[in-house]
Write a structure and sequence with these properties.
By secondary structure, this protein is mostly helical. The radius of gyration is 44 Å and the shape is globular. The relative contact order is 0.03.
């Protein structure tokens, strides 16, 4: 008994699994109570029971099972995780509950199933229930049917998919069990309730008695549309709304979820397709040609029987259609004609849109056959053409229909009009655009005037239908000339029309609920429902709202489409007015006089025909005044122009009167409602005067005004015909000139090209050269709009003329037609009209092409020619093809009807003779160009066969086929190709050539499309098989195409399509899909309306910037991943498991289905620390092996068991790699959500990943690396620091992978190493990578060496461990490696070090063999020649690093910040001055840093001190650093708070987190706005500006591209930044602190922002840009004028150098410079002219005059000249005294330029020359003695070169240099090696130190900061060594020099203006000096922060060391200075206290 009750103590979940039924019962009861208590659906409690719910429902004890079912129902209803159990629980219910005898159990089972459907798991439930129908137990079948019925009844047909149920219905009706049959009957009735007659065809096969019973039941059903009574969770709000409506007034009907009313299943979709081609009688084609009509009839009857099948399988029906068409067209027996028509009807109905490709051939034949009078024939033909219409679009057959409209036979005309009327009924406003309506209306308008009444009636009906479909506004413009009677008749017809869409009201489309779905297959896309397919059953029957049966473009919402079609023309009232005016009746002269006298003064009318010209002139003046004052509505235009035309009218002899007259005409046309009637009165006179010298311009003006009033096309046509009907050549040429101009002003739309061409040809043949010239000019303008096709019309002109025309066309090539400037205001432009129809893209392009005259060539395609093409002899076939080519060539442009040619050419595409195949392809290419867009209708029968040729084995044939396909696609667009199954059928063929070419083509075309037909999904299964094709090229092309397919179909659909793949394939494909998802480009932006298809989970990824490389778009891809992947990891696997669960005994299945919700990593407090201790204490194995042994794996497993979810651990340590992939997928999903867990188990995760590095499977490795990238990005965001244990057990194994043969993997590993530097110091990474260089794998060695180079480049020499010397020696060993790649990598790395560290490298690398040394020297020399390009690339590669300069105050990782600055430096150095970047780093490695840093801290505390008294501290620092070092701790003690707070806040401004940045900016703004506090910012201005423009750069590059960020946030951040800056630049004292480099970068940032088009698109963007404008003006006015001018000059120079920079950018920089020039008169005295002139000199050196003149714009050279001119004007001759900073003035282009300017400005040249002599006779001396100097220098360099006299030579050079400071020794050094140059420099410096050190140290000259930076000599000592390289002691002057540089770096001025001795001490001159960029300063700031931190930690240690090392370096000469310094320091300290 004790045993029995023991279970009472167990927890609930264990009771539920207990083997005692009582225990289980108790467990279920308790669980039920628990479930009812839990209120939170996301509570972790639910997860505990996740694996047990299946047990609940499948319990073996019936009583217990009941309780289990109750608990399960509550669980499913309330737990958010319940969805995961769907498959297993429902299958349990089906197999173990539905067979129970208890009704209660069954009820609960059904309830559980319905509850699963409610929680959105309908598909899975339905799948299990349908499986249940295959059970052998009838009870189960009945219960399953009942469940499905209830589900359908409650949830409706949107949720329950009917197609699979209907498929099994016939089988259920045949069941032996009555219960099953009865239940089947009930469900059939229920289905009928939802889809009505669509259910009939699939049930035709069941027993007739049953069918009859069903019919009886169906009749009883209510007719109203059913509504669901239960809703999914996501629809519950809808349910509530419904209830409210019902309670309000029971009118749920009106509330309208109309979607429910639309039947969703089309009978056609439910049918199985029947294949009939093979069933045709074998002798069918012979019989159909037989002479006896009975035989022909037999053949047709056989076909008739076959086509009665309601759904036919797709195939090649071309021959059958051709045979039937022949019977319809040519058979004499009318019975057979009717029979053939019926067969065609059957084919069209059965094939639906697959028949569309044949429609074009058949339509003309049927229409022409309407000449038959017999009613049964006519009826058959009507049915046939109506059925065919539904398979194609009106657009496609419009050409054929319109051609028949001109037929003389009235019956044909009548029937065609009736057909048009019926077709229109199927259209909506959007599918009947203006472009289509126009030609139809024109043709029908001819018919309403026909003599035959039946033709007229039919035309009225068609026009009435059109009126009904698109509304009056759209049709009225075409009915302008129709008289009232006829108009009323049309309206009357319109009212009677019943549209297919079931709406009677004319503006049907305007109603919101009505959503026509134009695409027949597009319906599924429109509603987003999987089942909604097309409803184009031939008889729409009782369907209340069948979607449109006419295929059209992509689905469009009814409303916009309707507005586009109906509203556009009429809404513009001016257009409406014009339309009314057009038909203004002609008034008699008398009426005109009356009307005119009412508005004109009486005298005016009397004097019109006065004989005195002066009176006439006066009269005209009065006339003009009267017209000017008249109101538009009151102006009788016709009357007024009649008055003007009155005698003498246009024969007026006085030119003044004539000019006035013409001017008045223009006024009337502009101001009044001017009609064509009025225009005709005056145009003749205008054309007559257009050639008049005096009046010509006025005549042109008047014509332009008339063109604006009456539209250019009409006016142009009138004017041209008038001009060419007279003989005056002047008038003709001027008319042509006017027209050329008018076309540019009005645009080309609507112009009649044909009419022009004939007139132009007349003009070209004119004898007068002026007329010919004007004609050619007009052709040039037309060419802009028409394009190359224009030339075809003139090919038969004389060669001389043709060459002139070609020359004109050549001129126009590449130009874009100007945007129309006129004709817009008065009339809604045609673009608006057409654009809104949604067909705009077509219209725009085809407009012109449609106007070209097309030749009909069908009569030339004779049967002889066709038989020739099909002849057995290839020569005859070739002849036939040659003939075809000739016909097409001759015709130029052809009509789409080409008879039998398509079938003939199609046969030749698979000709055995490849030459003929190529010839056929060429013909098809020609055909596409000749036929233009009309080639669309041949895509299916000719285009697809061309694609088949892509599978040819011959390369040239494939290339020709591809060219042809492209030529076709250019004309047709892609829609026709992608529609239907043809393309997918091609892809299905297992031909590698075909597959790779086709996929390549799709990959090229798909990205350019805005939308694609839904049929694209049909290609996906074949795309997946291509991904696994044996051929590597096919696989690659498939992978390339994958993202583009996904772009249109969305990730969800693509992932779903993998369902049918084998499990192994599926996983691989899903992995590829994931990858593609990251690369998926955004769709090309559609015009304003574009709404992307809802694609569920993949939507976020869709908007990722296309450019982001995979590894860097992490931030973009982390978010969207979880959804789809969860579906994959959990959903998919759970399905798989249920399948296994059936076969495996229950115990294992339990294991399989363990709880997978909840966290995957469990946080164990101090777990990681404990593991580290264990490893240190050797309690466990240290993670160190060459290959992982079992004990390591076991140990890791044990360690993981406590902190990793059990099920995940099983996946991680599974023997099959697929499971590892799954584990990684889950880990990626949980990365963001479980940051703490991940960090807590990081050591274990990394160890597990090292095991994966030893796997051989690439997919796992790729996935692991992908995970690592995400992981390290997360760690860096979390500011985590990798522990030593984690690093040592992971990095060495990662480095092994850097040597992988696969490129992708190597790249990934490098990316990970890069990211690791953000969480682990680079200096500690160095030894690991160094270890990697010892590998046997040469690839690994090379990659490691490259990575070392990158580290040194990014972080400077400090990373080299243990010491730079040792490290470099090891690297240098590899220069002699046997592998070329390794040698190169080693050389590159050392060159990188050289770039950072200079010649010191040679000392550090020790001795090398001669060969290695020469290689190295050669490489160094090469690298010096070209400015390095690498750094920029790296900056791009690692954008992550920029983000980490956030508010990381504790500077846990110093890497990123340093890295940032150095990389930016390098990027800066790209523009041609590599030295700058290298120099920066060198000083920061000197121990002197410490002094500088300490002073930095002083400055933080006392801003004024920094600002004003720094010289006291800086001047005397002549001592080596030890003494200062000893003092440093005190500085730290006294560290004040204000400055550090400001530093901290400023560091947050550049934060990657928008909110952090905004908070920081707000704080700074508060300080700046209060005058008393603003001073605190002093000394921090540069730092603040740097942070600000880094933030601007971050927004520009990162935030703006991030789709997930709210743009409002960004605008807010911009406002804060701009507001702050404006506040700052209003405080002049602070504004002046900004240094040149910082201002340059700031201006760069601001101008870039002004040009950012993305900002303009935002709502408040314009406001931001206006504020920036204001800010820029403030910066220009308030900054230090020298600094800002200098910055702008450098910025202009950079922007002109940078190829990527936009011309707009340079233009804005120049505008800023112009503003500065305007300010110069006021600011000239505060400007340091020497610096500015130096900048201009550098600018002119980089851009000599010749180079500037080559610039596209002339602005740069003008700007420079203006600036210099202004300076000269303000300064006069004195300006030449300000060239002190320029070396080699004689060679300076600037000096020459200034001298020239002075000469111009000074008349008395004498005074100028006096000045010259006074000022610098020495200069003349220099010039004269130049030759001597050269010899002298050559002598010196000879000495230096010889071994014996080196010292002496150097001394002489030093003396000489001192004496002639201007001497240029560059030419002598230039040709020597790098080594020799540095040797000379070093020697000179040593001498300088010896001599200068003993005497007084000269104060530095007034050299600009940029000069200083580049002139810094190569430092002689690295961090630790204080002595000189030569072992001599270093004089303090060296330190002083360095210090000066540091000061300048921080924006302090070393100079005293008056004291400007020549710069003698420095030798190294840059090639192009540069500005000390603000990033250098950032670098220095960061190193200050870093060093001060380190110093604080090691102060004791440091002071000891420095004492010992210091004693050596103090020299007697500097003791006085030291004492002096001590005193000053004491002073500072006391003043602080």
């Amino acid at each position: 008994m004790g045993d029995d009750s023991e279970w009472l103590k167990l927890p609930v979940d264990q009771k539920c699994e207990h083997k005692l039924w009582k225990a289980r019962l108790s467990g279920y009861e308790e669980a039920l109570k628990i479930f009812q208590k839990i209120k939170d659906e996301k509570s972790p409690e639910w997860s505990k029971f996740l694996g047990l719910i299946k047990k609940f429902v499948t319990d073996s004890n019936a009583v217990v099972q009941l309780k289990g079912l109750e608990a399960a129902l509550v669980y499913v209803e309330n737990a958010h995780v319940a969805g995961k159990t769907t498959g297993e629980v429902v299958s349990g219910v089906v197999s173990k509950v539905f067979n129970q005898p208890k009704a209660k159990a069954k009820e609960l089972g059904i309830e559980i199933c319905l509850m699963y459907i409610e929680i959105e798991k309908g598909e899975a439930v339905q799948e299990e229930l349908l499986k249940g129908l295959d059970s052998k137990n009838p009870k189960i079948i009945v219960a399953c049917i009942e469940t499905l019925r209830k589900a359908l009844s409650e949830f409706g047909s949107k949720i329950i998919l009917l197609k699979p149920i209907i498929k099994v219905l016939p089988k259920l009706f045949e069941s032996r069990e009555k219960a099953v049959r009865d239940e089947a009957k009930l469900i059939a009735v229920e289905i009928y309730r939802w889809i009505r007659d669509a259910l009939r065809p699939p049930l035709q096969s069941i027993n007739s008695v049953q069918l009859k019973e069903l019919e009886e039941e169906w009749v009883k059903l209510p007719t109203g549309a059913p509504k669901p009574s239960r809703f999914l969770r996501s629809q519950q709000e809808l349910e509530a709304k419904l209830e409210q409506q019902q309670s309000a007034g029971g009118e749920a009907e009106g509330g309208g979820d109309d979607g429910d009313e639309v039947p969703q299943i089309d009978a056609y979709e439910l049918l199985e397709a029947v294949e009939i081609l093979s069933k045709l009688p074998k002798d069918f084609y012979d019989k159909i040609e037989a002479k006896k009509w009975q035989e022909r009839k037999e053949a047709l009857e056989a076909v008739e029987v076959l086509v009665k099948n309601p759904k036919l399988e797709a195939g090649d029906y071309a021959d059958l259609v051709k045979a039937l068409k022949k019977v319809v067209g040519k058979d004499t027996n009318v019975m057979l004609v009717a029979l053939a028509a019926k067969c065609l009807t059957g084919l069209a109905v059965g094939l639906r849109k697959k028949f569309g490709q044949y429609a074009g051939h058949v339509v003309p034949t049927i229409l022409e056959k309407f000449k038959e009078k017999k009613p049964q024939v006519v009826q058959a033909l009507q049915e046939a053409i109506d059925a065919i219409f539904l398979t194609t679009t009106l657009q496609n057959i419009s050409e054929d229909v319109l051609a028949v409209m001109d037929n003389k036979n009235p019956t044909i005309k009548q029937q065609t009009s009736l057909f048009i009327a019926r077709s229109f009924r199927h259209c909506t406003a959007s599918t009947l655009p203006k472009s289509l309506l126009k030609p139809f209306c024109a043709a029908l308008l001819k018919h309403i005037n026909d003599s035959a009444p039946e033709v007229r009636d039919a035309a009225f009906e068609a026009l009435g239908t059109a009126l009904k479909v698109v509304g009056e506004k759209a049709v009225n413009p075409f009915l302008a000339d129709v008289d009232k009677l006829k108009l009323d008749k049309i309206k009357e017809c319109s009212e009677k029309v019943e549209l297919v869409h079931g709406k009677k009201a004319g503006l049907a489309a305007d109603k919101k609920e009505f959503k026509p779905v134009p695409g027949r297959a597009a319906a599924s896309g429109a509603t987003g429902d999987k089942d909604t397919k097309d409803i184009s059953a031939p008889k729409p029957g009782p369907l209340k709202k069948a979607p449109a049966t006419k295929p059209g473009g992509p689905p469009k919402k009814g409303k916009p489409a309707a507005l586009g079609g109906t509203g556009s023309t009429g809404t513009k009232n001016k257009k409406g007015l014009e339309t009314k005016e057009t038909v203004e009746p002609e008034l008699s002269v008398k009426v005109c006089e009356e009307k005119a006298s009412a508005v004109l003064p009486a005298t005016c009318i009397q004097l019109l025909d006065s004989s005195n010209w002066k009176e006439r002139l006066a009269c005209m003046e009065e006339f003009q005044k009267a017209v000017e004052l008249m109101d538009r509505t009151e102006m009788p235009c016709q009357a007024l122009v009649r008055m003007l035309a009155k005698k003498p009218g246009w024969k007026e002899t006085n030119f003044q009167v004539m000019q006035m007259k013409l001017h008045i005409v223009a006024l009337i046309a502009q101001k009044g409602n001017f009609s064509k009637t009025s225009a005709q009165i005056v145009l003749d006179g205008l054309v007559d005067k257009i050639g008049d010298v005096k009046c010509g311009n006025n005549a042109k003006e008047a014509m332009t005004a008339i063109a604006e009033a009456c539209m250019l096309p009409w006016t142009a046509e009138q004017v041209m015909s008038m001009a060419f009907s007279q003989k005056n050549p002047k008038n003709q040429s001027e008319t042509l000139n006017w027209l050329s101009n008018a076309i540019k002003e009005f645009g080309f739309s609507g112009l009649n090209v044909k009419a022009f061409i004939s007139n132009v040809k007349t003009a070209l043949a004119a004898t007068n050269p002026a007329v010919r010239t004007s004609a050619i000019t007009l052709l040039g303008v037309m060419y802009l709009y028409v394009g190359p096709s224009l030339r075809m019309f003139f090919e038969d002109e004389k060669p001389a003329l043709l060459s002139q025309i070609d020359a004109e066309f050549e001129k126009m090539q590449g130009q874009n037609p100007p945007a129309p400037t006129r004709g817009i205001s008065k009339h809604s432009t045609s673009a608006t009209d057409e654009g809104e129809d949604g067909d705009e893209p077509d219209d725009g392009g085809n407009d012109v092409v449609d106007l070209l005259p097309r030749t009909e060539i069908s009569d030339k395609i004779t049967s002889d020619l066709v038989s020739k093409i099909g002849d057995k002899n290839w020569k005859i076939r070739k002849e036939g093809l040659d003939e075809v080519a000739g016909i097409i060539n001759e015709a130029k442009f052809i009509q789409p009807n080409i008879g039998e040619l398509p079938t003939a050419l199609k046969g030749r595409l698979n000709d055995s003779n490849k030459i003929l195949v190529q010839q056929t392809l060429n013909i098809l290419q020609q055909l596409a160009v000749a036929m233009g867009p009309n080639i669309k209708q041949h895509v299916k029968n000719l285009g697809i066969p061309i694609i088949t040729v892509l599978g040819d084995s011959k390369n040239n044939v494939r290339a020709a086929a591809l060219a042809t396909v492209n030529a076709w696609a250019e004309q047709t667009g892609m829609k026709e190709w992608l529609e239907g199954e043809d393309l997918s059928e091609e892809l299905k063929k297992e031909n590698p050539f075909l597959r790779q070419e086709l996929l390549g083509w799709l990959a090229e075309k798909l990205p350019t499309l805005r939308s694609t037909p839904t049929d694209l999904i049909l290609c996906v299964p074949h795309l997946y098989s291509c991904l696994e094709d044996r051929n590597g090229d096919v696989r690659k092309k498939a992978q390339d195409a994958l993202p583009f397919f996904m772009m249109h179909l969305g990730y969800e659909k693509m992932a779903k399509a993998t369902g049918k793949l084998k499990p192994t394939s599926k996983d691989q494909v899903l992995a590829m899909l994931e990858k593609a998802k990251a690369n998926m480009p955004a769709k090309p932006a559609a015009p304003a309306k574009a709404t992307s298809k809802p694609v569920g989970g993949s939507a976020p990824a869709k908007f990722q910037p296309a450019s982001a490389p995979v590894e860097d778009s992490v931030s973009g891809t982390v978010e969207p991943k979880p959804d789809p992947k969860k579906a994959k990891a959990l959903g998919v696997s759970s399905k798989a498991k249920t399948a296994q669960g059936k076969k495996v005994p229950s115990k294992t299945s339990l294991k399989e289905d363990e709880d997978k919700s909840g966290p995957i990593f469990i946080v164990v407090p101090n777990g990681k620390e404990q593991r580290t201790k264990d490893e240190k204490g050797l309690k466990v194995l240290k993670w160190n092996f060459t290959t992982p042994r079992d004990e390591y794996i076991e140990q890791l497993k044990t360690q993981m068991s406590s902190c990793v979810a059990k099920w995940l651990q099983d996946e991680m340590f599974h023997s099959d790699f697929q499971h590892h992939n799954k584990a990684l997928a889950v880990m990626v999903d949980h990365l963001e959500s479980e940051k703490e867990g991940v960090i807590g188990c990081l050591d274990l995760i990394l160890k597990w990943l090292t095991l994966r590095f030893f796997d051989t499977n690439t997919s796992v490795l790729m996935k692991a690396l992908e995970y690592l990238k995400l992981l390290f990005t997360l760690l860096s965001e979390e500011e985590y620091h990798l522990t030593e244990n984690e690093a040592s057990s992971f990095i060495p194994y990662l480095i092994l992978k850097v040597g992988e043969p696969k490129d992708v993997i190597r790249k990934d590993v490098r990316a990970i190493l890069n990211r690791m530097c953000l969480v682990y110091p680079a200096s500690k990474m160095f030894p690991f990578i160094m270890e990697g260089t010892k590998s046997k794998n040469s690839k690994q060695r090379a990659e490691c060496l490259e990575e070392l180079g990158c580290l040194v480049e990014s972080y400077g020499m400090n990373v080299c461990q243990p010491t730079p010397g040792k490290a470099l020696k090891e690297i240098a060993i590899h220069i002699g490696d046997r592998d070329n790649a390794v040698r190169n990598a080693a050389l590159n790395t050392i060159v990188t070090v050289y770039n950072v560290h200079g010649d010191q490298v040679f000392k550090l690398i020790g001795t090398l063999s001669e060969k290695d040394m020469s290689m190295l020297e050669e490489r160094i020399k090469r690298s010096a020649k070209r400015p390095s390009a690498a750094p920029v690339k790296q900056v791009e590669e690692k954008p992550q690093r920029t983000q980490s300069i956030s508010s990381n105050t504790n500077m846990l990782r110093k890497g990123p910040a340093e890295d940032m600055s150095s990389r930016l430096n390098q990027a800066r150095s790209m523009s041609g001055h590599p030295e700058a970047a290298q120099m920066v780093r060198r000083e920061f490695q000197l121990d002197l840093d410490e002094i500088e840093n300490d002073n930095g801290t002083v400055r933080c505390e006392m801003p004024e001190l920094v600002q004003h008294k720094l010289d006291d501290i800086f001047e005397p620092v002549l001592i080596p650093e030890p003494k200062i070092r000893a003092v440093s701790p005190h500085f730290d003690d006294m560290h004040s708070n204000t400055a550090s707070t400001i530093n901290f806040i400023i560091s947050q401004v550049a934060s990657g987190d928008i909110n952090t940045s905004i908070q920081a900016l707000t704080q700074i703004d508060e300080v700046l706005r209060q005058e008393d506090k603003a001073e605190a910012m002093s000394g921090h201005i540069d730092q603040f500006l740097i942070a600000t423009f880094m933030q601007l750069r971050l927004i520009y590059n990162t935030h703006m591209a991030d789709e997930k960020l709210e743009k409002d946030e960004i605008i807010k951040l911009y406002s804060c930044i701009i507001g702050n800056m404006i506040s700052l630049f209003q405080i002049e004292s602070l504004a002046r602190e900004a240094s040149t480099g910082v201002l340059k970068d700031l201006m760069h940032g601001l101008i870039t922002l002004m040009l950012d088009s993305r900002i303009e698109d935002l709502e408040e963007g314009q406001q931001v840009i206006r504020s920036v404008n204001l800010l820029v003006v403030k910066v220009l006015e308030k900054s230090d004028q020298t600094n800002i001018l200098s910055a702008l000059l450098v910025l202009l120079q950079d922007s002109l150098l940078a190829t990527a920079s936009s011309p707009k950018f340079s233009e804005l920089v120049m505008k800023c410079l112009w503003r500065m020039v305007r300010l110069l008169p006021d600011t000239i005295n505060s400007i340091n002219l020497d610096r500015i002139l130096l900048d201009i000199h550098i600018f002119m050196k980089v851009f000599p005059k010749e180079k500037l003149k080559q610039c596209k714009s002339e602005f740069p050279i003008r700007t420079l000249k203006t600036l210099l001119h202004t300076l000269c004007k303000l300064k006069g001759p004195k300006i030449l005294d300000h060239l002190t900073m320029i070396d080699n003035k004689n060679e300076s282009e600037l000096e020459a330029h200034l001298c020239r300017m002075m000469k111009h400005s000074m008349d008395q040249t004498g005074s100028k020359s006096d000045k010259e002599t006074e000022k610098g006779a020495s200069r003349i001396d220099e010039k004269s003695s130049k030759a001597k100097v050269n010899d002298f220098l050559a002598e010196i360099f000879k000495k230096i070169g010889s071994k014996e006299n080196t010292k002496e030579g150097l001394a002489e050079l030093y003396e000489y240099k001192k004496k002639y400071s201007d001497a240029d020794i560059e030419p002598f050094l230039k040709n020597s090696s790098q080594f020799f140059q540095s040797y000379v420099e070093r020697g000179l410096r040593v001498i300088e130190m010896e001599r200068e050190g003993k005497g007084r140290i000269p104060i530095s000259t007034g050299i600009s900061p940029q000069m200083e930076v580049t002139c810094v000599p190569t430092p002689t000592s690295t961090g630790s060594s204080v002595g000189n390289t030569n072992g001599e002691e270093v004089g303090p002057s060296v330190y002083l020099e360095r210090l000066k540089i540091l000061r300048q770096r921080c924006g302090l001025d070393n100079t005293k203006q008056d004291d400007r001795p020549p710069l003698t001490s420095l030798l190294s001159k840059p090639a192009v000096p540069t500005v000390a960029s603000s990033t250098d300063m950032l670098h220095s700031k960061l190193s200050q922060l870093r060093e001060s931190r380190e110093q604080h930690q090691h102060s004791d240690l440091d002071s000891n060391q420095t004492h010992s090392s210091g004693t050596m370096t103090t020299s007697s000469s500097s003791t006085a200075n030291i004492d002096d310094l001590k005193k000053r320091l004491e002073r500072i300290k006391s003043s602080r206290k």
